[in-house]
Amino acid sequence: MARALKIQKYGTSQGITINANGTVNQPAAAVAVDQGYPNFGSLTDPVYNSADTLSSSDFIGVVGGLSTAATSATYPIILPQVNISTADGNSTGAGNGRIIRQKGAHKFLVAYVASATADESFIVGQAYQISTVGTTDWAAVGAGRGTVAVGDIFTATAAGSGTGEAYPVGVCVLENSGTPSAGYMSIEYSVGDSSAVYASYISNKWIRDWNGMTYENYSPSNTGTNVQSSENFYPVNFFTDEGTVTWSGAELINSANAQNGSLQLAQVVKATS
Fold first, then answer.
1. Is 270 helix (H, G, I), strand (E, B) or coil?
2. What pLDDT digit, counting tens, does each position of 67-84 carry?
3. Pick from 272, 268, 270, 252: which is nearest to 209 by CA?
């Protein structure tokens, strides 16, 4: 696996500030971390895409993460479809998710955010991420003692009886489907105003399709290697799927879309709030 996908975060109390009288506040500020990439407007002599559909506030590259105060139309996050297998032998069903962490080339820790689970419906043994603190006794349901916060992850040891809610959390692997089956997820993108395409692989700057792949997912039950023979590679972004970008060495990539040092852009489906 290449470098893991960046995850957008928002720290509410980070660093220090020094007041005019010399006193120090620590911690001090709300700071976005890995919010995105340097935009074109911050670059020296930037070269935009051939269709000229990228603006100075846009950038090449994508990030995962949960929706926080750092998430916006300027700094979006990937919006996957996930179907988490739950501890009771069922699944969440396919729905909107968020990427918490990349665990392998095709495997991610994700949260199912299409709907939150009320504390009285917690499944013992299932991992959750707190979405609403409410009046729940979080220590009693397995979230540990002390102060809890939105975003904390825990494994439920009991159901609750308050007003708190949480999102189911689990590990999913990529599948070539807009409605992934239990234990799978998909990341949709488009190329040149194409219909929906699903990623067989994604990194901070690249995405590839399933063209020529032996299987339509990375299930361990698939015997043999999922041969990677003629997938198409694209530089990925949140803002446009039109035009090409110049890429050093692009002509060396085994892809029908890599010609004369230029590559077609891919636009991934995003969440902006």
1. strand
2. 877 789 999 999 999 999
3. 268
Beta bridge partner(s), residue 65: 8, 99
Residue 253, both tokens: 């990539």
212's CB contacts (< 8 A; 6+ apart) are 227, 228, 229, 230, 231
In order, the DSSP letters of 17-47 are EE-TTS-EESS-EEEEES-----GGGSSS--
- Helix extents (H) in 117-251: 138-141
Task: Report the predicted TM-score, pTM, of the whole model to 2 decimal places.
Answer: 0.86
CA distance 25 to 142: 34
How many helical (H) and strand (E) elements, i.e. helices and strands, does the chain have? Answer: 1, 24
Q: In this structure, what are the phi and psi dihedrals at residue 138, rounded to the nearest 5 degrees?
A: -70, -30
Q: 57-86 burial, b for 16+ CB within 10 Å, e for fewer?
A: ebbbbbbbbbbbebbeeebbbbbbbbbbbb
Task: Write out the two tokens for 259.
Answer: 């010609």
